[in-house]
Known about the structure:
Helix content is 30%, strand content 12%. Strands 1, 2, 3, 4, 5, 6 and 7 form a 7-stranded mixed beta sheet that branches.
Amino acid sequence: xxxxxxxxxxxxxxxxxxxxxxxxxxxxxxxxxxxxxxxxxxxxxxxxxxxxxxxxxxxxxxxxxxxxxxxxxxxxxxxxxxxxxxxxxxxxxxxxxxxxxxxxxxxxxxxxxxxxxxxxxxxxxxxxxxxxxxxxxxxxxxxxxxxxxxxxxxxxxxxxxxxxxxxxxxxxxxxxxxxxxxxxxxxxxxxxxxxxxxxxxxxxxxxxxxxxxxxxxxxxxxxxxxxxxxxxxxxxxxxxxxxxxxxxxxxxxxxxxxxxxxxxxxxxxxxxxxxxxxxxxxxxxx
Length: 286
């Protein structure tokens, strides 16, 4: 709301005229007669200006009163405004994302296809995301495709290849699901995931949305790196790898190690192979 600057009562501003020598005779009456109309003109002009200012302020207030409000007593942004000029960053932007406990139970398949990565046995896979959660199947599929095609991934063994498909036959499906749905899918195979972890059952890799969005307290890298660990660990089971333990203090943890349960002296790692093509291996764990 814009406010007009207050005026003196009546809108009259005192003006001091420069001193002049007094005139004699009837000059004084003529001067007084001439001054009266001038004072009236000043009063009328100033009063008109004050009235215009008051009318304009009232008009502005009326316009603002009829506009949408942003909930903090300020007019909401109009068409053509930029968000930076009319809003402040959401306080949720710097916090961890909220993970829904359950979704619809139905899955949306990513309409994405990719080139085969690697050499040897080709395994086609689809990516599906549970309904009712704010995660794009296409974006998730693209991220998973990059993980499985990375030169430090399972293609480095020289006899495993992977290809993202959206239709037709697939060797396995990667499902990203809410904790309750993960418990249902994994529980059907006799696995207890406690709403916290992932699993590999039948032709399905089940990824817990909680881990996909939040990572793990044992893994101190970016959440994107932890997603690589999830995919490489579960796909590792699909191609025949079992669990492994820490090979020694200060060494990289094998990707087939259940790192979410503790690193036991190892350092967190999300890739099966190092940058020189050497497999990061630990002792077998039952």
